[in-house]
Amino acid sequence: MRKIALILAAGLLGATFTAGLSGAAAAAPRCQNTANFDHWLAQFKKDALAQGISPKVLAAAAPELTFDESVIKRDSGQGVFQRTFLDFAKRLLAGARIPNGIAKMKEHQALFARIEKTYGVPPEVITAVWGLESDYGALFGKFKILPSLTTLAYDCRRGDHFRPELIDALRIIQRGDQRLDEMNGNWAGEFGGMQFTPTNYIKYGVDFDGDGRRDLIKSTPDTLASAANYLKSIGWRRGEPWLQEVTVPANMPWQEADLDIQHPRSQWISWGVKASHGSLPKDTMPAALILPMGRLGPAFLAYPNFKVFIDWNSAYVYSTTVAYFATRLGGAPPVSEEGAPKVQLLTTEQMMELQRLLQKRGHDVGEIDGRLGSGTRKAVRKEQVKYKLPADSWPTTELIAKMQGR
């Protein structure tokens, strides 16, 4: 749902976790704030009034339109803690998270049925997002939203992104959806059971309990239906699957394994791909083969609905984990770990060196941050093809050595 870091249930993990070996990378050098905050705030208030925020709401919110240095420190100090998909998924789905999710689906069975009829999104998908975003509404975050958003809107790093978020946070109060004292959540400004940003709250929040408010904090019907509304709006296809574990042969054309490369299921079957559990129909349903840990780790067919998870949160390992969690809530068994011990893991420093090498070759890998994102994966695959290595998009020391000319 958003491109920035988020709080996960129990406060154990964040979306900055990506594939690789444990260890934190130092934060990249950041810009320095030079504008006078009071002058900036005075101009912001004028802009807010011009965009329809009432003087009464602005006056009530004024004591919380403050600068919080701790938010800047959190934004600057997000380390890159490397985790493989299996490690990440096991940590997030440990304990009672799966049985609690199943219990929630049973408790709200009638509500979920009404939501699915309206939006076409099944209970297990909504519940998986709910479980990982707020532990089913148990953990919302303890930061006051307005000081956090004010700080980030003023800050030089992403001010253009957060300024409209702050306006929309005020708009949520103005239209009566939340009171000022209820606006608590993540340090980055997300709040409620689904950790919506204020802008997405405005766009996709729905009043599903009919009380005249869109309450994504205290109202379970509003919270769950709003998530379904958002998922539908960004492309969810009613009645279609999203993720299916498969086994792949050793002679697989690995260069075909990429989220942006789709083939009919019949084509995957002809290459020797088989369902790990259940069936794999030989039909024209499009699917991509994704390998979160390379060819030696778990393999999945990702259907068009899978990209909705990516749009919800762009962190590859996190979005894959949410989609996998939804399959588990739907009755799928745990993913295979058979090849996991053979998977080579790069350190953060090695990953950053690889990104520098890829960048020098003209690949767009984004920021040199040690994270195995989609840009780095695509670049790795292209270089693997060039060096006639198995093109599974998984970085290795062998690829680094070849690119260094060793």
**Unreliably modeled segments:** 2-28
**Strands, count:** 7
- Determine the structural class based on helices, strands and strand pairing: mainly alpha
Radius of gyration: 22 Å
Q: How confident is the prediction overall: mean pLDDT?
A: 91
The helix-strand sequence is: HHHHHHHEHHEHHEEHEEEHHHHH
Oligomer: single chain
* Helical content class: 40-55%
Could you give the order of strands across the largest sheet? 4-6-7-3-5
How many strands, what sense, and barrel or not for the largest sheet? 5 strands, antiparallel
Shape: globular
- Residue share in β-strands: 5-15%
Amino- and carboxy-terminal Cα gap: 42 Å
List the total number of helices.
17
Explain this structure:
The chain is mostly helical and 406 residues long. Among the domains are: 96 residues, no CATH class; 58 residues, no CATH class. It contains 17 helices and seven strands. The strands form two sheets. A five-stranded antiparallel sheet has the order 4-6-7-3-5. A two-stranded antiparallel sheet has the order 1-2. The two termini are 42 Å apart. The relative contact order is 0.14.
